[in-house]
Write a structure and sequence with these properties.
Helix content: 10-25%
Structural class: alpha+beta
Strand content: 25-35%
Largest sheet: 8 strands, mixed
Radius of gyration: 16 Å
Distance between the termini: 37 Å
Number of strands: 8
């Protein structure tokens, strides 16, 4: 059985089981601590009875900077899932779902229009997971990832920008049904 709580800085020493997955982005220590300092309610961990971190989610609340305001790519106030990962031995137990629901709750409290995330186009397992939770592809970000885990000779890999509307978006204006047909470049996303 897993328990869920807010991230603490000493958890960084316990992330190794989660971060060994090649599809999990690993950041430097200051990046994790920045999220902890700015958005503590959107940084949660799951731990097993022995105190091992077996999953975590890291997110933020933000909008595009003012200079994007008149761009077609402007993003209003929303929550963003920067990282969600579960250790291999703890998968298929509902941990990722609970962590995501906790972040969505914080997004609702923060009055976000939607929650978004980026996922590798090849990560079909994650895409199916997010779709089962009500997320849909809003657009394709060409060559978003600098590497390609399936083909090291390729330049990069496309990402899906997936979104789930929050209760504030009553008209669903921040999602679209044909998102796979809308491609943008990495410099178009904030």
């Amino acid at each position: 059985m897993a328990s869920f709580r807010g991230f603490r800085p000493d958890d960084l020493d316990k992330f190794f089981k989660c971060n060994l997955d090649p599809l999990t982005e690993t950041y430097d220590l200051s990046f994790y601590l920045q999220y902890y300092a700015k958005w503590p309610s959107l940084f949660q961990v799951a731990e097993d009875p022995s105190g091992n971190i077996i999953g975590y989610i890291m997110g933020k609340l933000e909008s595009s900077p003012d200079y994007f305001k008149y761009s077609e790519h402007y993003l209003p106030w929303h929550a963003h899932i920067t990282a969600l990962t579960v250790a291999p031995e703890a998968r298929r137990l509902g941990i990722g779902k609970i962590l995501t629901e906790n972040l969505e709750f914080a997004a609702e409290v923060g009055n976000a229009w939607f929650v978004d995330l980026f996922v590798r186009k090849s990560n079909t397992r994650a895409i199916k997971f997010y779709e089962s939770m009500g997320y849909s592809v809003y657009r394709v970000v060409k060559d978003y990832y600098g590497d390609n885990v399936n083909d090291p000779t390729a330049h990069g890999e496309d990402a899906y920008d997936m979104r789930k509307p929050m209760s504030r978006d009553k008209t669903l204006k921040h999602i679209r049904e044909d998102g796979r047909n809308h491609a943008v470049q990495p410099e178009d996303v904030f």
